[in-house]
Amino acid sequence: MENSQLGSSDQVDQLDISRFKILCVDDEPNILSALRRMFMLAGFVVEEASSGAHALQKLEQHEFHLVLSDMQMPEMNGAEFLAQVRQRWPKVMRLMLTGTGDLKTAISAINEGEIYRYLTKPWNDEEVVSTIKSALERYALVHERDQLLELTKQQNLILADMVNTLEEKVKERTAELSNSYDELRGSYIASVKAYSTLIGLRDSALLAHSKSVADLAVRMAKAANCSQNDTQDIYIAGLLHDIGKIGLSDETLANLSKGVGGYSKKLYEAHAKAGQDCLSGLYEMDRIALYIGTHHERFNGSGFPNRLKGNAIPLGGRILAVVEAFEEVQIKKKDVAQLLPKDAALLINEYSGTAFCPEACKLLLKVLGVVPLPKKIQIPLAEENSQAKEDVVRPSIKGVVTPVAPQQESVPQKSDVLVKNLLTYSELLFVVAKYPGAQVFDERDQANGYLWVRQAGGVDNANPKLVKWLGDHKFLLKAEKGWFLPIL
To answer: Which residue, among 481, 433, 160, 181, has the nearest Cα to 337 in the 3D structure?
Structure first.
């Protein structure tokens, strides 16, 4: 039977009995004929069966909504027949019609068949028709209830799948809201998952990176005692922080690890603003959009897109900046050993107060259980017979320039820009030149290139003092090639 046949409570009040089918079961043809005539005059759709077995066969072939059965029938009596109907078609309404006044018979029918009503012969037409209408009204109400329960069950399953990691926060917030807000909240969660799915369709590695950023960012937010709302927004911002990259070309995405320049660089630097614009104005997304738009800003004002500085960058943006850098420095690149999480966290912490917010750096170390190293305050520029000079080290990211130590002597200068704010390129040339067979190779303009120091005859022939100096200045050893300086 179609759902429209049963309808809502308004249809129950004005029951269209022609939409329901009745099956009358009796071994006496004259009884069946009388029942058929009475029901057809009342507007019912009715069919007949001369025995319980015949009735079961019809029930298997057609849909009926109500069965009216005689009690005393050969081979299978009414109680036995209705018991089978209850077992195989439990939703069909069941009524008993019999001429006996035996109480035991009635009890058997009620217990075995769980009948709706018990009618006796001879019957009153109006009473029977009224009883049948009442039974069908009950059928319609039960059917509608079952439909609503099934619909609610399906919606709950869909909602449970959508909420995923946001389930706890959704429950806390929806407990205080109306049913209309529940529906709106469900749409909001579905939107977040849809945006996340779009990122995965664009680049599966990008989605994996985004999930890692979101998981670590939410741990830092909790360590900072952020409110539940802020923690949730930081998590979602981490999950969607690279949504602006959906618009980048395959070539630009593929070359991100190699560094981008020119027009591609402008496109890349626009992705944070593009992600913010994508989500701004959507339901409960404004703060999330702001975090996404500021996750490439730098604490010293050297970031993009707006060169915000210090606390002008919202905490969510500062946390995401630290977490994304932490994740990216662990990405294995050509000829570069992969950093362990502890080493990556310590490397990020070197930029505390310059590229990154000191508070966010402390949160990163805290949630990872990493103890920060003491800050260096001196850098020796010469050894042995040369007079050592000092320079205060201020950790920073690539492109942030701070005062440098005076040069020892005139040396060829490729650039006076600081290398990781540890020393200038000129100072590096000056120190390495003192050790025979040691040379500087600048391959930073190549794909996956770095600043290298190599020793003629192999690394085992290098002067121990040079090896120590390189280690003190964050150079990492790649045994078959020499020492390289990782650059963010």
So the answer is: 481
The DSSP line for 112-142 is HH--SEEEESS--HHHHHHHHHHHHHHHHHH
340 secondary structure, DSSP code: P
Residues 471 and 308 sit within 8 Å (Cβ to Cβ): no
| Inter-residue contact 346 to 486 (CB < 8 Å) | no
Give the integer Cα–Cα distance in Å for 480 and 488.
23
H-type alpha helices, 406-446: 425-432
- Residue 372: count of CB within 10 angstroms of its CB: 13
φ/ψ (deg, to 5) at 352: -65, 130
Distance CA 219, CA 323 (A): 11
CA-atom Rg of the chain in angstroms: 40
Residue located via tokens 């449970």: 160
Name the burial class of residue 202, with classes exposed (0-12), middle (13-18) and buried (19+) by CB atoms within 10 angstroms of its CB.
middle
Amino acid in position 234: I
Distance CA 81, CA 70 (A): 10
> Are 317 and 346 spatial neighbours (Cβ–Cβ below 8 Å)?
no
Kindly tell me if the per-residue pLDDT of 340 is higher than 80. Answer: yes
CB–CB of 283/184 below 8 Å?
A: yes
Query: What are the residues whose beta carbons fall under 8 Å from the beta carbon of 292, sequence distance 6 or more?
Result: 237, 240, 241, 243, 244, 272, 275, 276, 279, 320
Return mean pLDDT, the chain: 76
Distance of alpha carbon 124 from its chain centroid, rounded? 65
| E strand residue ranges, 314-426 | 418-419, 423-424
User: What letter would DSSP give residue 458?
Assistant: -
Q: Which position has the higher pLDDT, 123 or 363?
A: 363
Beta carbons of 422 and 392 less than 8 angstroms apart = no
State residue 106's pLDDT score.
66
Q: Where are the chain's structural domains?
A: 14-155, 177-368, 379-488
Helix (H, G, I), strand (E, B) or coil at 455: strand
Structure-block tokens of residue 353: 């107060």
Helix, strand and coil content of the chain, in percent to the nearest 5, comes to 55, 10, 35
Phi, psi of 199 (to 5 degrees): -60, -45
**Omega within 30 of 0 (cis) for the link into 305:** yes
Whether 305 shows a pLDDT value over 70: the answer reads yes
Q: Sorting pLDDT into bands at 50, 70 and 90, what band is 398?
A: very low
Give me the mean pLDDT over the 381-410 stretch: 34
CATH of domain 14-155: 3.40.50.2300
Q: What is the mean pLDDT of residues 323-342?
A: 74
Assigned token pair, 214:
């979101």
Residue 418: CB atoms within 10 Å: 20
- Topology of domain 177-368 in CATH is Hypothetical protein af1432 (1.10.3210)
The 3-state DSSP class for residue 413 equals coil
